[in-house]
Every structure is written in structure tokens, then in C-alpha cells.
Design brief:
Largest sheet: 6 strands, antiparallel
Strand content: 15-25%
Distance between the termini: 28 Å
CATH class of the largest domain: Alpha Beta
Length: 233
């Protein structure tokens, strides 16, 4: 089944971001039929034996059937999230994926920035993670917003002075700057992304996006999502 889904299928994330399901192809049945074609068999609806087959495929690393379904998402997120997410495209051995992102070479609309609700202290156990909320959140937000405001002023001045958009963007602080992109990926790639970014040690911000992606695909691929996320390998 190919889904024609609308803008109402969007979930707000963080302070200004969102994930929207743009389109999808396939279902749990697509995965099962892709696996059973080896025996020239197919089904029209999921049975208990099919659920067991999905579990078997996942547990034994037979991943190709999960590539016969796919999803397209529109995502608005801070660049620090986008670049972490991008690793699943450039480093993926699952299938060819699509990624098309807004470019500030071509657009110069007013920049938006991510301002955290809370700031986390550096973890003593995980060098790349945080733990525990710091009481410095109001002070840190004030400092961050001051930097962002000055950067936006400098950027706007450069644009108004006739500087090219591709160079004027150098004034913008990168990590907190919001960007928007389309991501098209196989169901296998999406499930792999979720399995890693829903882990307890994943960065808080990208986990919030993973939660939104899970909520969007759960009704479309309920058995595959359950097997991958409730019964990790």
C-alpha cells in the first residue's frame, strides 16, 4: 500500500521542530511476502506464523525483506540533530536513502534557533553524554539567546548590504540553527535508527525525534516495530 498522508500527520518536537510523515510504501505484509517469495508463497493479512517469521528474520539478521517497505519524513530540527541523523545515510549499508535539505545558499529567511528547556551536566560515565539537570539553565539560556540575537543581527545586516546568502550564513552559529529536510529510507533503516536513538544513552534531543518517528510508523508497521523495539537483538 502506498500512503497519501497529509500535514496533519506531524508531531511537534523540542521548541520549534517537528517530524511529519510525508508518504510511505508497504506494510508488515510487504515484509512477510518479500521473505516468503523464496517459496513462491504470499499472504494478504498477518497471521501468528507471520509474526514469528518477522521475529526470526530480525533475530537472524535476514534484513533484506525489511527493505521492501519505506517511509518519507519531513523533519525540522537543530543542525546538531541533523548531522547526527545524517550518519545513518552516509554510513548505511542497508539501502540507498534520500536526503534533501533546505540550503541557505538559496534562502535567506529569518533563522530560527533551538533553545533547550533544560541543560544537562556532563556525564561522568559517558564522555559523549549528559546526565542530571544543572540549575544554571536560566543563565545559560540568557547567554545563548544573546549570542543568537547578535548573530541574527549580523546575518541580516550582511544580507541587507548585498552580501551573497552563501557567505552571509557564516555569521550564523551552526549547532543550534534549525534546518529542514526530507528523509526517505527503507523500513529497515528506520527501525535501525529507532533501535539506536531510543537507547537510554542517546542524546536527549535526537531521542525526542526518534520518539516522534516511532509514533508515526507504529500504526503502519505494528508488528515490525514491536519486534525490533520490544525484543532488541
Amino acid at each position: 500500500m502506498v500512503g497519501e498522508v497529509g500535514p496533519d500527520l506531524a508531531i511537534d518536537v523540542l521548541d520549534k521542530g517537528y517530524v511529519r510523515l510525508v508518504d510511505y510504501m508497504g506494510s508488515d505484509v510487504s515484509v512477510v511476502n518479500a521473505a516468503r517469495v523464496s517459496y513462491n508463497k504470499r499472504t494478504e493479512k498477518i497471521r501468528e506464523s507471520d509474526v514469528k517469521l518477522i521475529r526470526y528474520l530480525k533475530e537472524h539478521g535476514h534484513s533484506s525483506p525489511f527493505r521492501h517497505a519505506s517511509c518519507t519524513f519531513e523533519v525540522k530540527a537543530p543542525l546538531m540533530v541533523a548531522r547526527q541523523w545524517w550518519k545513518y545515510v552516509v554510513g548505511s549499508d542497508h539501502t540507498m536513502e534520500g536526503w534533501n535539505e533546505v540550503s541557505r545558499r538559496y534562502v535567506n529567511d529569518m533563522p530560527e534557533y533551538y533553545v533547550p528547556d533544560v541543560w544537562f551536566k556532563q556525564s561522568g560515565k559517558n564522555k559523549q553524554g549528559g546526565e542530571g539537570v544543572t540549575p544554571l539553565t536560566p543563565e545559560l539560556n540568557l547567554m545563548l539567546e544573546k549570542i543568537q540575537s547578535q548573530a541574527t543581527h549580523n546575518y541580516s545586516w550582511a544580507i541587507a548590504s548585498g552580501i551573497s546568502a552563501e557567505q552571509a550564513r557564516l555569521f550564523l552559529p551552526a549547532y543550534g540553527l534549525y534546518t529542514t529536510w526530507y528523509w526517505t529510507a527503507s523500513l529497515q533503516s528506520v527501525l535501525h535508527f529507532l533501535a539506536q536513538r531510543l537507547e537510554h544513552d542517546a542524546q536527549y534531543e535526537i531521542t525526542q525525534y526518534a520518539i516522534a518517528v516511532r509514533e508515526l510508523i507504529q500504526p503502519l508497521f505494528p508488528y515490525c516495530v514491536k519486534e525490533f523495539l520490544d525484543y532488541p537483538a
